[in-house]
Structures are given as C-alpha cells and as structure tokens.
Amino acid sequence: MSQTILNPVYRKRLWKHRIGIALSVMAMSVGLIFLMWILWTLLSKGFAGLSLGLFTQDTPGPGSEGGGLRNAIVGSLMIVGLATFISTPIGILAGVYLAEYGEENRFAQVTRFVTDIMLSAPSIVLGIFVWTMYVDVSKHYSGYAGSIALSLIAIPVVVRTTDNMLRLVPQSLLEAAFALGAPRWKVATTVRLRAVKSGVVTGVLLAVARITGETAPLLYTALNNQFFSSDMNAPIANLPVVINQFAMSTSDNWINLAWAAALLLTFSVLLLNIVSRTMFSQKTTK
Q1: What share of the chain is helix, strand, coil (3-state, %, to 5)?
Q2: How distant, in Å, are the alpha carbons of 27, 77, 183, 275, 276 from that of 205?
Q3: What range defines the domain where residue 200 resides?
C-alpha cells in the first residue's frame, strides 16, 4: 500500500470527496425521478387528448363535448411572434452596446445591473406593470398588451446572451480589424457580431422558449377568447391561459384539452431547446 493512501490527510480528503459525490448523485437522482414522473404524467394524459379536431376546432363552451385548441394555438403564435419581433432587435442592440461600452460607461454598467434584476423578476409583476400602463389606460385587454408583457421577459435574456457571446470573441480578431482601419461600429456589427451569430440566435430561441409557456402576464393583458380571433387589439385566446382555465374546471372534456395543450407547449419548448443547442454545438465544434 502506498504512503499516499496511508496519509491521514489524504484519506480524510478522499472520504470528503466520496461523500460529496454520493450526495450529488443522490440529489441528481431525486431530480430525475420527479422530472420523469412529470413527463410520464404529461405524456400519458396529454396523448389521450390529441386528435385532428384539436387543431381544426375552437375551444368548446362550458359543458360542451368535443372542440379543440385552434384559436388558442393561433393566438399563442401571434402573441409570441410579435413579442419575439419586439424583443429581438432591442435585445441584440442593447447587448452590443453593453459589450462595447460596458466597462467604460456608467450608463452601460447601470443597464447591465438592471438587466440582471429583470432576468429574475417575477413574470406576474411584469404582467401587472403592463396592465397598469396599457390595459388600464386603453380600458380593454388585448393581444398587443400580451406581446409587450412577454417581450419584457424576453429582452433581458437576449441582452445577456448577446453580451456574453460577444465577450467570447478573441481580442486579437478585434485588433486585426482595427488595424485595417475599420471604425468601431463596423467592427462591432460585421466582425464581432458575425463571429457569434449562432450564439446570439441561440439566445433568441431560448428567450422564445422562456416566454412560450408564461401564463401570469397573459392573465393581466391578453386574457382569453372563447372564439377564433386574429384581432390583436382585443382579447385573444392563448394556450397558457386556456390550460389555467380548463385545468381548474370540473369538465372532463376541458381537463383533457388542458393536458393536450400542456403537451403541445412542452413539445414546442423542447423543440426550440434542441434547435438552439444543435446550432450552438455545430458552431463550437468547427
């Protein structure tokens, strides 16, 4: 037996290491058990509600049989699409500004601090804020208000992702661009941003995945609509609020539709995560 193993200090550290690893494995196992439990429950109950009518029929009235989620699916796509359209340019441009001037500008440092706070802000607080600033003033719920609330959640994610990605660009690449006489704005947009475009797109996709299942902000802004509507200036149906409303009912038909809607949202978020990680991994392996 070697002298290293017999050393009491080494053996004490070895046991601490083993205990730490054992506790980590136990914690991971507990997390995986609950995750698999949730997924199994979602799949077993969600698949029972899947049908062609789910995508071709609108949400049924109270006590009605049949029906689907067509109006909620279309409404969710419109609200999330507009929120993405609002948050993407704002988040990317703000991220570029922070990466370029974050270390030498007080305003940029304050912006980064506020962005970090907004990242952890409860979504219901942002929903109440938009309700106060938009819904209460306009005197009606609307899809526009829902998109604004969701964009307030997505913007910090895009900003921080863009900022972090741009900081990974090697300084030698930037110095080479400056040595050629390129102005700072051109180096930032055509050299620095282009070098990390897959990471920036990944951040946008993660932001979309983040807001797709948000319910609380939409309860105060877009609310819900029993009928099909593409008018973003009026209450509009959406999957998160439909799940919240139907899951709390006593109707078996509504509860089945709620599980099917939850399954659709889960698959949508899963697909976005797979696409974003695939894009990022392909870029980093080159």
Answers
A1: 75, 0, 25
A2: 29, 14, 30, 8, 6
A3: 54-279
Task: State residue 140 phi and psi, 5-degree precision.
Answer: -160, 150
The closest of 274, 237, 253, 246 to 73, measured between CA atoms, is 237
Q: Helices (H), strands (E): how many in the chain?
A: 15, 0
Instruction: Report if residue 200 sits inside a domain.
Output: yes
Direct distance between the N- and C-terminal alpha carbons of the chain, in angstroms, rounded to an integer: 46
**Of 165, 187, 169, the residue nearest 279 (C-alpha):** 165
The one-digit pLDDT tens for each residue of the chain (286 residues) are 566 666 788 888 889 999 999 999 999 999 999 999 999 999 999 988 888 999 999 999 887 888 899 999 999 999 999 999 999 999 999 999 998 887 778 888 888 888 988 888 899 999 999 999 999 999 999 999 999 999 999 999 999 999 999 988 888 888 888 888 888 888 888 888 888 888 898 889 889 988 998 999 999 999 989 899 999 999 999 999 999 999 988 889 999 999 999 999 999 988 888 887 776 665 554 4
Helix (H, G, I), strand (E, B) or coil at 251: coil
**Does 227 lie in the same domain as 106?**
yes
Query: Distance between CA atoms of 205 and 99, rounded to whole angstroms?
Result: 20
Backbone angles phi, psi at 130, to 5 degrees: -65, -35
Distance CA 85, CA 34 (A): 35
Q: Which two tokens stand for residue 150?
A: 């969701």
* Cα 114 from chain centroid (whole Å): 19
Q: Which DSSP category does 105 fall into? A: -
**Matching residue, tokens 């900022």:** 163
- Residue 285 belongs to a domain: no
Residue 212 lies inside a defined structural domain of this protein: yes
Nearest to 80 by CA among 22, 150, 138: 150
Same domain, 138 and 244: yes
